[in-house]
């Protein structure tokens, strides 16, 4: 009997960073893996990872050169990270360029993620769920209608719990 066929495992894409040391590259990969879980672009993980491990603030041009990404990608990533509260702008003496530094305070990072990513999704989901109940009521099959309504009610319950838990989570984290 032949061995069972297993689906091909998707190999993780690990980029090379020729201008960085081994530790820097590995730290960046940790953050790339983290942002993938959150559904954010890999460049955001790369930028934050490099800023996190860098002892000095870096300019936009430094990020572009060291990470090998486009200026547009670096600029967009920095804008997203600033919106999340994960990066601070730093003015260095004798430099006309703006520099950036990672904010390493966990409560600010989680609070920013909740504020910028989770809450807007939760708010838009509320209005969608309200409309779902109306659509479920239009189902002519009574059994199917009851099933749909029970699922929509479950969604409403989950969302009410999320609305209750998010402020507590933010308070615990100190934002």
From TrEMBL:
Keywords: DNA-binding, Transcription, Transcription regulation
Top-level taxon of origin: Bacteria
Record has Cytoplasm as a keyword: no
InterPro entries xref list: HTH-GbsR_regulator, MJ1563, WH-like_DNA-bd_sf, WH_DNA-bd_sf
Coiled-coil segments on the chain, per record: none
Family: Belongs to the GbsR family.
Stored PANTHER family: HTH-TYPE TRANSCRIPTIONAL REGULATOR MJ1563-RELATED
Name the record gives this protein: HTH-type transcriptional regulator
Organism lineage: Bacteria, Pseudomonadati, Verrucomicrobiota, Verrucomicrobiia, Verrucomicrobiales
């Amino acid at each position: 009997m032949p061995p069972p066929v297993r689906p091909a495992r998707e190999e993780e894409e690990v980029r090379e960073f020729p201008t960085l040391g081994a530790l820097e590259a590995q730290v960046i990969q940790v953050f790339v893996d983290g942002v993938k879980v959150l559904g954010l672009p890999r460049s955001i993980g790369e930028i934050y990872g490099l800023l996190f491990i860098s002892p000095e603030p870096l300019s936009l041009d430094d990020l572009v050169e060291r990470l090998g990404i486009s200026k547009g990608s670096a600029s967009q990533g920095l804008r997203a990270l600033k919106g999340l509260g994960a990066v601070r702008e730093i003015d260095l003496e004798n430099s006309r360029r703006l520099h950036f530094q990672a904010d390493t305070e966990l409560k600010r990072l989680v609070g920013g993620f909740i504020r910028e990513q989770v809450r807007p999704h939760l708010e838009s989901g509320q209005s969608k769920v309200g409309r779902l109940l109306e659509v479920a009521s239009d189902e002519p099959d009574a059994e199917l209608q009851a099933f749909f309504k029970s699922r929509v009610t479950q969604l409403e319950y989950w969302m009410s719990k999320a609305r209750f838990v998010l402020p507590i989570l933010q308070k615990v984290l100190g934002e």
